[in-house]
Structures are given as C-alpha cells and as structure tokens.
Design goal:
The structure is a homodimer of 332-residue chains. Chain A has 332 residues and is an alpha/beta fold. Chain A has two domains: 147 residues, Isopropylmalate Dehydrogenase (3-Layer(aba) Sandwich); 141 residues, 3-Layer(aba) Sandwich (Isopropylmalate Dehydrogenase). In chain A, 46% of the residues lie in helices and 15% in strands. The first copy, chain A, is built from eleven helices and eleven strands. In chain A, strands 3-2-1-4-11-10-5-6-9-7-8 form an eleven-stranded mixed beta sheet, with helices on both faces. In chain A, α1 crosses α10, α3 packs across α5 and α6 crosses α7. Chain A is globular. The interface between A and B is large, with 47 and 47 residues.
Chain lengths: 332, 332
C-alpha cells in the first residue's frame, strides 16, 4: 500500500522519551516503505541512530534543528522566539516540498501553530481541527473537533462536518459517510444554541446529514462522523482515556490477572489516540499524537501520514469544504 | 437509618413497564421502612397490588391520578392540559405536606416541570439542576449539571457548585467537598469562555475550589463535585451508558461468557443512573431516574429520597447556595 517514494518529516524531539522511541519508530516505518526525515538536534539523533545500529542517512535521514517546544509553553511565542525549533523545521520541510507529510507527538498547540504558519489553512477556516476515530469500541466513528476550537460558531461545525466526511470517504473508504451532530436529544430543536443553529446549516450542506446523535448513539453505528465543539470533544477524549484506565484497573482486580481482556479494555481509548490523528484543514498532511506514544505508535503514525498523502486526503478535504461552504453560504 | 415515618410519593405511572415494576419497588421500599404513596390510575394500581399479593392501603397506599405524561411530550403543555396527571399529583403531595419527597422514573422534563411548579426553586436559581454520582468507577464524584441547563451562564456553574458541595456534605458525608470545574486543561485560562468566566467566581465562592478538572481526572480523585454545563454533562452521561454497554458486549465476546466482570463493566454506568439522582435546587426532595429502571432500582430510589429528607439535604443545599451567591455577588 505505502509507496516507497513518500517522505514523512518526523518531529523527533517532540513527545516523551525523545528521541529514543521516535528514532525506533522511524526505523520501523522505514521498514514499511516510508522514507522518514528525522528532524531534531543532530548530536542526540546521531547517537540514538548509532545506538540502534542504523547510521544516519541510510534508513532515516537527519534534518538538523535546534531545541523543542515544551508541553505547556505558549506555542506561538515559542515559535517566534526560536524559528529553528524542531516542529518549525519539520513543517517547513512540507512547505518546501522536501517532505510530503508531517508527524508530531510533541506539544499539540505547537504542531498546530507551526502547521498553520508554514502550510496555511483552507479558505474559510480560521483554525484547523483535531479529529478522527479514537474509541476502539467504535473504531469507524470520527469525532471532530477534539479540542482545537473550544468556542464554536455554527458554521465551524459545518466545516468540521465537511472535513470529517471527506476524511471518511478518502481515507477510510466509506462511500457515503453519514454525518451526525452530537446533542442531548434526537429531534431537531434538542441541544444547546450552537447545535440548534448548526442543524439547519447541516441540512442544506449537501452532506449526508443524519441529524442529532446522542452520547450513547456513538456506539450504535448511527453516523460515521460526529461533529461537536472542541470543548465537548476534548472532554470526551480525555474522559474515555481515564475511563479506560480505571476500567482496566478494576477488571484486573476482579479477574485477578492482566489478561487479554483487561488489556483490550484498557486500550479501548488509548491505542487509537496514541496512533495519532490527522490535523484537519491545513494544506498538507499532518498527523498529531500523544506524548506518551512509543515506537510502534510512531511507526503507525508515520505510515498513517504516508497514507493520507497517497490517498489524496488533503485535496479531498479542501474540495469538500469548499463545496459545502458554497451550499450553506456561511463562509467564515 | 431510614425512619419509619418518612413518606415518599412515587409516580407509579412514569417509566417503562408501569405500574408493575413501580409497585414491586414500592413494596420492597416499604419493607425497608419507607411509607410509599403510589400515585397513579386507581384500577391498574389496585390490580397490580392484588396481583403481587399486597392489598392497597397496607404497605403502599394508592393516591389516584389520571393519566401520565409520555416521554417526548412537551412537559409544560402536558401539565397544563391535565393537572391531574400522575407526576403533578405526586408533586402536589409534597407541596401539601402529605409526602416528604418524590420519586419519578417517568419523563424527566415533566418531573422537573411539576417539581418547579409545585415546590418552587431556590432563590436565585432559574431552573433546577440534575446531578449526582453516575459512574460506578468514580462512585464518589458528583457531576452537575447532567442536562437541565444546556446553555449556561458562569453564575449558574457557581450555583451548581454550591448545590453539589452541599449534597456531598449533607448526603454523602464528605466533610470538605472539593469542587472542580470540568475543562480541557489544568491551568486557569484553559477552557471555553464559560469556564474561563466561571473560574474567578468559583475562586471567591467560599467553596473548596480545586480548579479545572480534565476529563480523565474524574477518575483520579481530584474532586468530589465536578461542575459543567448541562450539554457536556448530558453527553458524558449518555456516552458512559453507551460505552458501558459496548464494553460489556465486547468483553462477553472475548471472555466467551457473561461473567461477573462483564456484568460489572456493563453496569459501570447503568446501575448508578438507574438508581436515580436528586433534582438539585427545588424546595423538596425529588429523585429522578431512568425509564428502564426495574423494581430494585425503584426501591433504591425511594430509600434514597427518604435519606435526602432525613439528612436535611434540601435545607443544606438552599443555605449553601445562598451563602455562595452572597460571596460571588452574582445572583441570577
């Protein structure tokens, strides 16, 4: 599937345990046919490649940068203060055509800011959105937004719907993705003001809008894409992570062993999240993941980024969004 | 614990499978020392009592009403059209001092509307809130609001905090309840506008405010009370219900049997929810639950309502809210 010519820039300094897991993940991805550019401080990267028995330039090439944006730092300020920081250099590689896509498990805010600065967002979109499937028990359901836009206007939910539908079609191969609106009741009119105002826009969006989706219906195959404001989405994402951990601990106690079932329940959130999700709405393939990711998560994210490129997901999203905004006549 | 003299009015027509499970639950609660008034259509109630071998007037007394507000009906319109409907008569019994508290698993909207009309809300509160612990994996954590107020102003979150703290202290026996604000990041300043505006109010509320609580931290014993707008709370409630069901089905498949662990995982949401939660902010004890409840859930809800009365929870909530609103100077 993955073409040999696809090149992915990896922010090798972002995320926990950098750069060991990052380098290991890059080498695993290289074995799966992706060319990886390791962006980071040269010395530690060379040392790590040597330690793992892979001299630089062979399977994974080093592109030097200086420093890293730490979790919690103000992303825009950090990027301004140091334009040579790893995530900025990595995003620049995509901008300059030296890489086809970007992967980072470092500061989400920094990855978003660097992507926006280097690649730009789609016409009509203020900020990119975060989304994708993150619940192993509902693996086909993409939820958007997961935290980029905590205060939304109705038109933004429509943009999320277009981006998610294009992703489901182009990346996941769903022929006619069903789009649902996360709400607190089934009928139109149920929900907060935002949802009530977004409903009629989605009805005339040209998308296959299936109406409101309640919390439990995420698990009932009612929609392929569920849109919500980033506050609600982020709470759900982290809640699921916490619940999965707590359920795993509980089950391990009840069953008295760390069985496959326990690991599966514990992983019902974490795996998908750690594998990284796409950044929706920037002019380039960007996959962002969790700082706790380990080598195989990095490898999966890199392969995923390559697939985003190969399947033309970014163009599909841009076109879908333009078409939907033209129909709803609510450009932002 | 439960005093023999406490009287609870049960909406015996509300909820699925009425009145069979309702009557059975009432008889179970009566065995636990609570006097129950069965409010509903006389004939089916008499027939059901006879069928269960308990003649009316002995363990559970019938108070006749006419009809029921169906799920999905407009509550206020239904109550206006028929003031003799079961939930209206039941709430009237509490207003008139013939019952100490009210339990309904029927239409939530109707139970809220009838409670507000008959009992009134606390000074400074527009509408009551729904809340309480609903996650078996975080049994000590009350989340408020769960769907009553889908669009909130900052002052309403402060009211929820006061009501929840009083509930935790008076009902659950937590000496100094910690109050958290559900958000998407730990530091002040993270969150949507509502959360950002509520934060400083909570800081000067006199409550033991512990700051923002992220989704996963609900499971990390960071707060006893977590406040949020009713949209987010309702999505979480129903999401948990759906996730628990899906996780249970998944586990049953993996383990190949419907073991105790499977039932426990499946019940991690449902049990607490089915047992019913208090309605916060009305001048009387009201416990509301899920239509799918069965007899033992009814019994638990009735006993819970009796405990709300015996522990003086309503007065504690009213006093706490008045004190907090005086401090935050943001009466609504």
């Amino acid at each position: 599937m993955t073409g040999a010519r696809c090149t992915v820039a990896l922010d090798a300094m972002g995320g926990d345990a950098a750069p060991a897991e990052q380098v290991k993940g890059a080498l695993l991805a290289a074995e799966r046919g992706v060319r990886v550019l390791l962006v980071g401080d040269r010395k530690p990267l060379e040392a790590e490649l040597a330690r793992q028995g892979a001299p630089g330039g062979c399977a994974a090439e080093i592109v030097p940068s200086e420093g890293v944006v730490a979790e919690g730092e103000n992303p825009v300020r950090a990027l301004r203060a140091n334009p040579r920081v790893s995530i900025a250099v990595a995003a620049g590689l995509v901008r300059d055509g030296r890489a086809d896509a970007l992967v980072s498990m470092g500061s989400t805010g920094a990855a978003m800011a660097a992507s926006v600065l280097s690649l730009g967002t789609f016409e009509g979109l203020e900020r990119p959105a975060l989304g994708g499937p993150f619940i192993a028990l509902a693996p086909g359901v993409s939820i958007i937004d997961l935290g980029s836009q905590v205060d939304c206007r109705p038109g933004q939910l429509v943009s999320f719907a277009a981006l998610g539908a294009a992703f489901a079609r182009a990346y996941q191969g769903v022929a006619e993705p069903r789009v649902g609106l996360l709400s607190v009741g089934g009928e139109q009119g149920k929900g907060n003001r935002l949802v009530q105002d977004a409903y009629p826009l989605l009805e005339r969006s040209g998308l296959r809008f299936v109406g409101n989706v309640e919390g439990h219906e995420i698990f009932l195959d009612k929609a392929d894409v569920v849109v919500c404001d980033g506050f609600t989405g982020n709470v759900l994402l982290k809640y699921t992570e916490g619940l999965a951990e707590a359920a795993g601990r509980y089950l391990a106690r009840v069953l008295g062993a760390d069985t496959e079932a326990v690991r599966a329940i514990r992983g019902m959130a974490a795996e998908a999240e750690l594998a990284g999700g796409p950044l929706f709405g920037v002019n380039g393939g960007v996959v962002i993941g969790h700082g706790r990711s380990t080598a195989h998560h990095y490898a999966n994210a890199i392969v995923r980024a390559a697939e985003v490129v190969e399947k033309g997901v970014v163009d599909a999203m841009r076109n879908e969004m333009a078409a939907v905004l033209a129909k709803t006549e609510a450009p932002e």
